[in-house]
Amino acid sequence: MTADTQVLAGRPVRRIGFGAMQLPGPRVFGPPRDRDAALAVLRRAVQLGVNHIDTAQYYGPDVANELIHAALHPYPDDLVLVSKVGGQRDAEGGWIPAQRPDELRQGVEDNLRSLAVERVDVVNLRVMGEEEGGPEARVPFEDQLQMMVKLREEGLIGGIGLSNVTIEQTRTALARTDIACVQNNMSLLHRDDEPLLELCREHEIPFVPFFPLGSAFPGMPKVTEHPEVRAVADRLGATPAQVGLAWLLEHSANVLLIPGTSSLAHLEENLAASGVELDAAARSSLDQLAG
Ligand SMILES: NC(=O)c1ccc[n+]([C@@H]2O[C@H](COP(=O)([O-])OP(=O)(O)OC[C@H]3O[C@@H](n4cnc5c(N)ncnc54)[C@H](OP(=O)(O)O)[C@@H]3O)[C@@H](O)[C@H]2O)c1
């Protein structure tokens, strides 16, 4: 392994990958505004060395996976595709739970079909708590995990990841089975899950922050808009996004990034973050920013 790579489900991947959530239409619902541009972003990502792509059947729904298939199939041998199950969309684009074991199986089968693979490299069990998913999400975590283990035993998924989990759920899962990665909300400005990141580091499990730049959703603090991030970026001759991503890369060696973008320019900028070095003054001011 070099400093730029990490092992994910037994395969080497570059530490900066790509998140496909920005490729469908607005609010991750419906087709992209510009299909050719979305396909071009995926192809350019792989051309620039991305070999870890994060997706979900429910991005669109059915849109992100279809774009990945259209742009990249037959997939390069080194590409690790990571999807997730546990959610679906209603007719208005609302995010609703699909956490029952039969729904998890259906979710994996939908991914197999749309990505046209016999096995999805890694599938994250994306947990919706009751506060996010309502009573429908009230399915015991152990039952969900048991189905994921079964799907892996059947060879339909290569590795089991966890997403949006508590540290207790992660401990429960680790006591039961191997975990390929953990994907929770984290950025320079949002660090509630430091203890979980530490647990993953102890167990040598990749931690994959979602919303590494603060997401596209309104009402969430954007890393690229923070005045201190912008000041550091100006001083180092980098962009604010690169500073936010470089901070995450330096923060812990088990971090794998999947920034999402629909823009070729942003894609190239984000991938170049691996070449941005923060100095001691930058680290010290950025370390103090978490809300
Ligand atoms: N497990 C989960 O529950 C979960 C939840 C959310 C996301 N995810 C995964 O995590 C990935 C990352 O999260 P995310 O895409 O929601 O949010 P994100 O990566 O934090 O931010 C995406 C937003 O940042 C903008 N952006 C990207 N690069 C930029 C740059 N260089 N300069 C300025 N703005 C930039 C994008 O706009 P442009 O399109 O204009 O670049 C978009 O608005 C997703 O793609 C998805 O695969 C998982």
- Ligands bound, unique: NADP nicotinamide-adenine-dinucleotide phosphate
Distance between the termini: 34 Å
Q: Tally of extended strands?
A: 10
CATH topology description of the domain at 17-183? TIM Barrel
Counting H and I runs of at least 4 residues, what is the number of helices? Answer: 11
Q: How would you spell out the order of helices and strands?
A: EEEHEHEEEHEHHEHEHHHHH
Residues in helices, as a percent range: 25-40%
CATH homology superfamily of the domain at 17-183: NADP-dependent oxidoreductase domain
The structural class is alpha/beta
Strand adjacency order, main sheet:
3-4-5-8-9-10
- Looking at the structure, what is the overall shape? globular
Alpha carbon gyration radius: 18 Å
Q: How big a fraction of the residues is strand?
A: 5-15%
CATH architecture of the domain at 17-183: Alpha-Beta Barrel
The oligomeric status of these chains comes to single chain
**CATH class call of the domain at 17-183:** Alpha Beta
Largest sheet: 6 strands, parallel
Low-confidence stretches: none
Compute the average pLDDT: 97
What does this 3D model show about the protein?
This protein is α/β, with parallel strands linked by helices. It is globular and about 55 Å long. The mean pLDDT is about 95. The relative contact order is 0.13. The chain is about 40% helix and about 15% strand. The protein has helices at about 35-45, 65-70, 100-115, 130-135, 140-155, 165-175, 195-200, 225-235, 240-250, 265-270, 280-285, and strands at about 5-10, 10-15, 20, 50-55, 80-85, 85-90, 95, 120-125, 155-165, 180-185. The chain has a domain at about 15-185: NADP-dependent oxidoreductase domain (TIM Barrel). Bound molecules: NADP nicotinamide-adenine-dinucleotide phosphate. NADP nicotinamide-adenine-dinucleotide phosphate (NAP) binds next to helix 10.
